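User: I'll paste a sequence; please echo it back and then give the predicted structure.

Assistant: Echoing your sequence first, then the prediction.
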Amino acid sequence: MSGCGDPCDKCEQLMQPYLDRVLDEAERAEAESHLEACGYCAKRFRFEEQLRQFVRSACCEEMRPELGAKLASLRTSA
């Protein structure tokens, strides 16, 4: 990765924008090059990617009615 400092620090800065697909072509190529060469950052990338997939799928699931009722019963009146 270009510039001063630790290449993994730069990769960390690019990780979320890379996952959001908002990097320009040069930044994307830089991130991909580092991810191909660095097992540690590649592992972190896979974790972040899987976490995003989990959150997306969890947001789409409907709450079971009995869980909704239990949560409603726990509410306190103001």
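Residues 39-60 form the longest helix (22 residues). Residues 7-74 form one domain.
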